[in-house]
Amino acid sequence: MSKPRFLLAAALQLILICGAPTVEDIPDVESCNFLQVNSILEAKGGNLVEVASRELHQNVNLVQQPLSPKLSMVAEVKLETMSVINRFNHLMAGAYLVAMLLFFSGITASDRFGRRMAQIVFLLGGMLTSGGFAVLLPISYSFAKALGQGAAASGFLVSAYPMGGICGQVYVRKTMLPESGRPGGSYKELRSFTFRTLFLMGLSTWAYISVVFTPLRANPTVLWYTLLFLRAAAGFLNSISGSAAQFLALNVTPKHEVMTLMTIAVGCRNFGITFGVIISSIVLWFVEQTHAANIWVNGTAPLMPIVLITLLVLFAFTLLMPQEEPELSEETGDGTTSSGQMTTMNLEVPQREKLMDEATIYSFERSFTVAAIEVATSLISEVQYGFSTVAVGWILTCITVAAVILNFICAWVVPKDHTSRSNTMYWQAAVAVLATLFMLSYWPLWTLYLGDAIIIALSNTANGMVDGFAVLAAVPNTPYSREAYFNRKRFLIAASRFLAAPLVRGLIEFAGRNAYASVQFLLTMCGLFCVRKIWEILNDSSLEDSAESKAK
Fold first, then answer.
1. If phi over 0 gives left and psi between -120 and 50 gives alpha, with beta otherwise, what is residue 347?
2. DSSP labels for 141-173?
3. Measured between alpha carbons, how far is 34 from 29 in angstroms, rounded to an integer?
């Protein structure tokens, strides 16, 4: 992204954030009102007192009538709330301006962190991707309903973010992959891409918040499509920023750290779901406690922490990421990584390609399954079980926290060798298939949440292992390089999240909860087949290694 394009995009975002002018912003409004009063008096005759008495007596009933729907939508926000929003806008404008000046001035506070800073930004970017998607889940249905939309349309509000991610990965494919001779392998280019896209993503999210508190509220249709556009823009920029940060991290990460990095990355990406719903629940609770709650505040306030976190990541990246590429460590890995590398290093190219193809398909299935759980459980809890918006947020929080705990337990007890890891992937996929039975409506209320936690936990662990093996099996400078693999993976993750929200909510609305459970069963069965093929490839390689060792 060139500097002129970056500055133009930033300027357009700021213009949108500023919003449309209100009556208070127009100069000489008092003199205009004075001329209007004089004209009325001349037309009706009489002095001011007589005309005012007549008009008051004739229109007293009209004064007592409620405002029209459009005017009441504009008037719902309190002056105190608008004051807080204005202060927030001023603070963000100053902070983002300082971040941009620091980056273009080339100031760095320390080069000491080297590759660790690239890895941290990559991990936080994955968490922001999932958190930015999940943060609006608890309020999405109510917010869409306030704008005259239904359950399926509320899914589009959620899925606009990953839809932008799909477009972002198309852009990455055409402009950034290193095997095409593009800047995906250049440290300086990736550093610049990461900052600029992360900067613009923060502005897009900030614009989403600000535009709701403009007169656009008087036209719900225009406001609805504006919000969809801004969510898609944030997803587009987040997708590019995440890819650039990932390429940057992989370029500076030694091979012996790759498996660990990818396992942590999957955990961070899935923890982002927990992070998003926790933020949403806490913010909605705080808004209720301050008596500032209305649908406009509830629909935007959960995004404020996302804007602030993006700003902190920008400052950390600018000040701590070296201008020059850090030296790559050549340390040797531990037994776990060495074993995994020996397994994939002995694979033939066709086996490597097959493994990466199956890993890509499995990533799509896992992402769709988890995204479907998020949007379906929030809808079922609110509509079928009658929980409040805040309660739905806390339910999703408990599910994802339980899933993270189960994930760490699984990761801790699994022996650190490639045979045990490949076997673990297999049984986890099988248990996930069985857990979908808890989604049927015949069971007690709590079984739905138990099944969700089990599926999400097993997805985290298995997906991290699959990614680790796929990276180690990659073939550089081919369509099966690690960069190309993650480009396809991110594209399919975004596509799955885009499709899951409207399809699953629409399916539940028109066909019922059991139809949704049946679809989840079929999807997890597909995932089981993919894992079995990956397991067979790794197992065959392990048997060949054993045969060669015995022959020697």
1. beta
2. HHHHHHTT--HHHHHHHHHHHHHHHHHHHHHHH
3. 9
Tens of pLDDT along 224-264?
999 999 999 998 998 888 888 888 887 777 776 766 677 67
Distance, CA of 143 to CA of 207 (rounded, Å) = 17
**136 alpha-carbon distance from chain centroid:** 10
Which residue range(s) make up the domain with 363? 76-325+334-544
pTM of the prediction?
0.68
**Number of independent structural domains in the chain:** 1
Mind listing the pLDDT tens digit for each residue in 197-209? 889 998 999 999 9
Do the domain assignments include residue 108? yes
Longest dimension (CA), the chain: 116
b (16+ CB within 10 A) / e for 197-223: bbbbbbbbbbbbbbbbbbebbbebeeb
Residue 247, classed as helix, strand or coil, is: helix
Cβ neighbours, 10 Å, residue 445 = 10
CA distance 463 to 364: 10
Indicate which CATH number applies to the domain containing 248: 1.20.1250.20
